[in-house]
């Protein structure tokens, strides 16, 4: 079997369940690749930013803007050089094989946490056509997570990665709700993005959905 990131062969004996049920063998990350990543073990209690055990400055600022939104974010890894390399290869070079790199983390998360609706942050039509895939849908589908489309990205904004911090924060609302009220009202919703940087994207998405009174909106990203 091969590592789903570096594609090098992984040499180990198969377990008995793997011999009987050999369908998840392409979901393994090798030891060397796993050791490159830095798992988030604590961090800010609301956004998981490293180095903060109380709500961080970012979260306090968001709370002032959205005082009634009970924000709760989860992330698996720190956004460091290793994660940057991974996302560069997957998202910007378009190496679609890498959609399986975090299958194990996602399966583990969704075993513990239950939601009525799971929604990937959408791309604009232009970006989707250019990239050929939605990178967030890719990672969720690789882990066999059922997703629903609640939002459309109506404008093709400059990618967040190409802006500085203050430019990101003043981005206007880019999302519109395309779901029915029944899909949102009273539901436990999880919004998923690849990276949480300033939080601007996820807060915009949550703001659009909150107008339809979901029971709860939580958010998840691979990296923070
Ligand atoms: Zn590897
Ligand atoms: Zn925070």
TrEMBL record:
Pfam families: Pribosyltran (PF00156). SUPFAM superfamilies: PRTase-like (SSF53271). CDD domains: PRTases_typeI (cd06223). Signal peptide: none annotated. Residues 173-222 form the Phosphoribosyltransferase domain. Transmembrane segments: none annotated. Belongs to the ComF/GntX family. This is Competence protein ComFC.
């Amino acid at each position: 079997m091969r590592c789903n990131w570096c594609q090098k062969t992984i040499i180990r004996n198969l377990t008995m369940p793997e011999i009987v049920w050999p369908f998840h063998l392409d979901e393994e990350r090798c030891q060397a690749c796993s050791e490159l990543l830095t798992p988030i073990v604590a961090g800010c209690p609301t956004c998981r930013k490293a180095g903060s055990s109380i709500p961080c400055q970012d979260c306090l600022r968001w709370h002032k803007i959205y005082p009634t939104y009970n924000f709760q974010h989860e992330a698996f890894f720190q956004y460091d050089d290793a994660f940057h390399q991974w996302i560069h290869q997957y998202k910007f070079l378009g190496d679609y094989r890498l959609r399986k790199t975090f299958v194990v983390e996602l399966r583990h998360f969704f075993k513990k946490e239950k939601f009525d609706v799971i929604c990937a942050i959408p791309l604009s039509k232009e970006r989707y056509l250019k990239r050929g895939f939605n990178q967030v849908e890719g990672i969720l589908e690789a882990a066999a997570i059922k997703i629903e489309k609640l939002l459309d990205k109506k404008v093709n904004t400059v990618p967040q990665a190409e802006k500085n911090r203050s430019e990101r924060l003043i981005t206007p609302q880019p999302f519109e709700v395309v779901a029915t009220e029944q899909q949102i009202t009273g539901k436990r919703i999880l919004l998923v993005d690849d990276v949480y940087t300033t939080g601007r994207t996820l807060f915009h998405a949550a703001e659009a959905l909150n107008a339809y009174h979901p029971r709860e909106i939580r958010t998840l990203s691979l990296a923070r």
